[in-house]
Amino acid sequence: MTRLTVLAALAAVALPSAGLATCATDAEVASFVEDYLAKTPTKALGVNATMEEAFCTQAKVAKALEPHMGPVVGYKAGLTSDRAMEAFGVSEPVAGVLYRDMFLEDGATVTGPHGARPLFEADLVLVVGSTAINEAETGADVMDAIASVHGFIELPDLMYAKDEPLTGATITAGGVGARAGVLGPAIPFEDGGAMIDLLAEMQVRVTDAEGTVLSEAPGAAVLGNPLRSVIWLRSTGITFKEGDMISVGSIGPLMPPMKAKGMAKVEYLGLPGNPSLTVKFE
Q1: Burial class (CB in 10 A: 0-12, 13-18, 19+), 18
Q2: How many CA atoms lie within 13 A of 16 on its CB side?
Q3: How many CB atoms lie within 10 A of CB 154?
Q4: Which residues are registered as beta bridge partners of 207?
């Protein structure tokens, strides 16, 4: 049973109130989804919530968004760098979901703001090849259970109005900004053991339309190695299935689209073939 299945059941049960937030009401979720679809900054969900309550709200949001975004096809880790955790005042990453219809092809053009408070970031997607990943304890265990590795430019959305609190609970409750993203083709590799080190050592470079470097960070910026995002996500109660997609988290800073000056390019220097992908903003 996946974490979302468990929390969906929990969401149907009223949580006890002690003067603090509980799992969001149907009306609160409906208001959030209406603003999400309209790309309008909205009120924060999960203010003063526990993480259990925040995940309960996330499950309700995911269920309400599936008719518009397609079914959940995977999970995402957010705030996976020390810099990001410090910026949002949290001591560990946050976990969200990925929807089928959020994925765009390499070179896609995004017309207009893609969200209420749109951002972009260099990321990476791992596709689960075996349920043995649910027993993985090391990077080698994870790598053995991965079917493919893909470059990913995530296009997240902070969603909440600027005066609303951004905390681990509120970010989690809203789904960790899942909105869209550009997915690259599978990166070919022959030696999984060597790939473990390459994922940590790679330099992920983001440039704008003029070729100016906007950021450059090693894969190790993500919890020491992007593969560790999988182990962390499992600690939140997720059970992965074959074919699930896993977004490991930002490799470098989140940036507003205007910084790209019309196009962002992300290069994974050090991975086989030094793959890259782009997204255009109009």
Answers
A1: exposed
A2: 1
A3: 27
A4: 213, 265
Q: What is the pLDDT of residue 120?
A: 97
pLDDT of residue 109: 98
CATH topology of domain 71-281: Fumarylacetoacetate hydrolase; domain 2 (3.90.850)
264 within 8 A of 206, measured Cβ to Cβ: yes
Q: Which two tokens stand for residue 10?
A: 């929990």
pLDDT along the chain (282 residues), means of 10: 52 42 91 98 96 96 98 96 82 95 98 96 97 96 97 97 94 97 95 95 98 97 96 95 97 95 98 97 96
The CA-atom distances, in angstroms, between 158 and each of 137, 141, 224, 228 are 32, 33, 25, 24
Q: What's this model's pTM, rounded to 2 decimal places? A: 0.91
* CB distance 39 to 113 below 8 Å: yes
Indicate the domain borders of the chain.
71-281
Q: Tokens 């909440």 map to which residue?
A: 160
